[in-house]
Amino acid sequence: MSNDTINQFINLSKKYFKIYLGISISVFLFILFFQPFPSHKFEFENKNLFTAGYGLIIFVIQVIVQIIFQRHLLRNNTDEEYNPLLNLLYYFLQIALTSVAFVFYIRYVGNTIITFNIVLRVVVISLSVPVTVHLKNTLLLMHGKYKKQLEDNRLMQDKLKQFSESYANKFIELDSENESDNIRLQVSEIIFVKSADNYVEVGFRDNEVFRKKMVRNTLKNIEKQLKEFNNFVRTHRSSIVNIQYIDKLNKNFNTYWLTLVDTKEIIPVSRQYLMTVKDLL
User: Fold this and answer.
1) Where would you find the membrane-spanning parts of this chain (predicted)?
2) What are phi and psi of 267, to 5 degrees?
């Protein structure tokens, strides 16, 4: 057995030891209090020792099954491709080995005649093993996904913060056919751009006051200028909006529009760009 295999076994054992021990103790206590199997042939101390044997059997079998399915458990542990057949076999072997071991233990150590009723009880108790392991694995998987989602959200927030800081003080000059009408604005202050015949209407903040200005240009040309800044999105053939100022997406029958922060302006949203806008909200 290589050092890698031994290390893998140790790491898996650390992960599953508590659940093996928990199942073993739970089964021991269940059998001790509810006595589903005959044990009247033993004295009190020997009866407790005999009952503890059930817990020991479960613990040993869990370790044996772990060794057999070590590669499968490692793949699950590293989020590699899920193999439902191996997973089913893993749980089935737990039930089968536990049931067989219990039957032999009751028959040859407990000196009890095996009946159908006893076998049925054995199988039911044996089912608790894979069910508990499966629930534990499912909870671990959900917890892992939740942690990953939180981490992804944190990274996204960090990126948005970096993005905001990066462009907060950056300026852009929106070109006009008449150079004297060019408008130089801070990128973060631009709220929207609307097409208006041969002009575009630019909505922006100026010292916290909402203002608008007409620039003789096409929306297509302005869109090219704003392309390097990811906080602008096309919502309609006639409008572009800064996503930082989107307040709400509204709907009335088949009509969609955006309301913006700090302004009463309404920005139309066409079906062509609807999904893009929804993904950003």
Assistant:
1) 19-37, 49-69, 89-108, 114-135
2) -110, 120
